[in-house]
Specification:
Layout: H1 19-28, H2 34-48, H3 53-63, H4 68-89, H5 91-100, H6 121-126, H7 128-131, E1 141-144, E2 154-157, H8 159-175, E3 184-188, H9 199-207, E4 210-214, H10 220-233, E5 237-241, H11 242-255, E6 266-270, H12 276-286, E7 290-296, E8 300-305, E9 311-313, E10 318-323, E11 335-342, E12 353-361, E13 374-378, E14 386-387, E15 393-394, H13 397-404, E16 409-418, E17 421-428, H14 436-448, E18 453-458, E19 473-475, H15 481-486
Parallel strand pairs: 3-4, 3-5, 5-6, 6-7, 16-19, 17-18
Antiparallel strand pairs: 1-2, 7-8, 8-9, 9-13, 10-11, 11-12, 12-13, 14-15, 16-17
Helix pairs in contact: 1-10, 3-8, 4-5, 11-12, 13-14
Length: 490
């Protein structure tokens, strides 16, 4: 499940393509004191954008210490409010609520939510205009999912959802001793052309002590520069795609680099499964504990690993049901599909939304004394790296961003047969046009090189792998040595 939330896609500024010259800029840059960056600049930025992030953060800091019954009572209050919004402003939800005989104000328990039918990505796409509340206070913003499931989705989100994601992530960082305004490094991707830099966004990042390194341009020379930048910037948190962070760690070990990062409190990984060998490698190279997180663009920031190894649900913002193949709740500790209700999704309510992800809830409480729900296991989707002819390694999202931006793509699979040979399978929807294939070809050539042959084939369906699982970006270009080991799937 892709966890990248709305607003978290970052343009490749900072050291996106700068190498050693970028390191010199990092060394010359003056970081603001944490009290100013986190206590003044960051809250001011959120107020300017109309996001109640810091107010929500303060409420999360209090509510996490409620007992489980208190947390679920809070969930019920928020669920009533969300369903009232859905009934008033979303005709599609109103019909479903009325047909199920569910009156939001009369909801007495979370279990009554099961009276409503589930919804899925196809429902959200087909009925978007009848679901979205475009006049939501603060505005509704059009967005699309990363497409790491092979099925892109265009949807709307609002300021409450943005605040929920940001505040939830801040609270999780605090569990590890990282506060807003502390220096953080993001190993992230660019949703637009790699040569294009959003200088305003880069300046905002730097004013809140955040440095972005481009995960879509990881050549050996650039990774050398990234390692130098980490040492120069002295972050308290390193955050990035699990496979990209593991790749950078493998590169450091292959180069024999011994990094001095005394301020680093935690390495946070996201976007894909984090395997045990990757966790061990990252911890060894960067000298800090590793914490994984879980979420998606459509539902939002969902869960984060706490010290002690438990993954805690963002219970104040999400109701999580775990359903078996028969659509019924699994027994405590059982594995099933994650069906989520986003309690802050007022701009386009996601109610009993089937994510397609497989999870297992733990019957154990949080060992730290919080009332938040504990997720014992998260199943994820595997994607491969893409490799340019010059040796630059790109996270799979570099290709996904291109394909998902083309209207009419219902489902896709991108296969890199060689550094000059890419095939894209597309299940086309009603919005597919004669120029759509050319748009995919041009976008991938811009990322991978003008001499790359891109073949787009429209098909009726995309079969799973022999294992029965779906892989949406597959590369047959092998990585070598430690880089291959770091990105291998057990």
């Amino acid at each position: 499940m892709s966890i990248v939330p709305p607003g978290a896609e970052r343009v490749g500024g900072g050291l996106g393509g700068a190498g050693r010259s970028g390191v010199a800029r990092v060394r010359r840059a003056v970081k603001l004191p944490r009290a100013i960056a986190g206590g003044l600049v960051y809250p001011l930025q959120e107020r300017v954008f109309g996001r109640p992030t810091f107010g929500y953060l303060a409420s999360l800091e209090r509510s996490q210490w409620l007992d489980r019954a208190g947390v679920e009572s809070l969930q019920l209050d928020k669920l009533r409010a969300l369903l009232a919004v859905a009934h008033a402003h979303s005709p599609w939800h109103r019909r479903r609520l009325d047909e199920a005989g569910v009156r939001p104000a009369a909801l007495h328990s979370l279990s009554e939510l099961a009276r409503l039918p589930t919804m899925d990505k196809a429902d959200a796409a087909a009925h978007r205009d009848a679901i979205a509340w475009r006049a939501v206070p603060g505005g509704a913003f059009k967005y699309n999912t990363g497409g790491s499931s092979g099925q892109p989705l265009i949807f709307y989100f609002g300021r409450q959802r943005q605040a929920s994601d940001a505040a939830g992530r801040m609270r999780a960082r605090r569990w590890w001793g990282v506060r807003p305004g502390d220096p953080e490094v993001y190993l992230w991707g660019a949703p637009v052309e790699l040569a294009k830099t959003d200088r305003v966004k880069t300046l905002r990042d730097r004013l809140i002590n955040q440095l972005v390194l481009n995960a879509f341009a990881m050549s050996p020379e650039r990774m050398d520069g990234y390692l130098d930048a980490l040492v120069a910037f002295r972050p308290r948190c390193l955050y990035g795609y699990a496979s990209s962070v593991a790749l950078l760690a493998a590169h450091a070990r292959e180069r024999g680099r011994r990094l001095s990062l005394p301020a680093l409190k935690v390495v946070c990984t996201t976007g894909e499964p984090l395997y045990a060998h990757q966790r061990a490698l990252i911890g060894e190279v960067f000298g800090a504990p590793v914490a994984n997180e879980f979420g998606s663009r459509d539902i939002g920031f969902t869960a984060h690993e706490a010290p002690g190894g438990q993954m805690l649900l963002m219970s104040e913002s999400i109701v999580l049901e775990v359903l078996g193949a028969d659509g019924r709740p699994v027994a405590p500790g059982g594995t099933g599909e994650a069906v989520m209700t986003g309690l802050c999704s007022d701009a386009q309510p996601f109610v009993r939304y089937r994510t397609g992800d497989i999870v297992r809830l733990s019957p154990e409480p949080d060992r730290g004394g919080r009332g938040l729900h504990v997720i014992a296991e998260v199943g994820g989707r595997r994607t491969d790296f893409l490799v340019r002819a010059d040796g630059t390694i790109m996270h799979a999202l570099a290709g996904i961003y291109v394909v998902r931006a083309v209207e009419g793509v219902t489902e896709f699979k991108l296969v890199q047969h060689g550094v000059h040979d890419v095939e894209v399978l597309v299940v086309a929807g009603p919005r597919w046009q004669s120029g759509s294939a050319r748009a995919i070809e041009a976008g991938l050539q811009q990322r991978l090189g003008a001499d790359v042959r891109v073949s787009v084939r429209v098909v009726d369906a995309i079969a799973p792998e022999a294992s029965g699982k779906h892989r949406y970006v597959v590369s047959h270009v092998p990585l070598q040595g430690d880089l291959k080991q770091a990105t291998a799937t057990p």
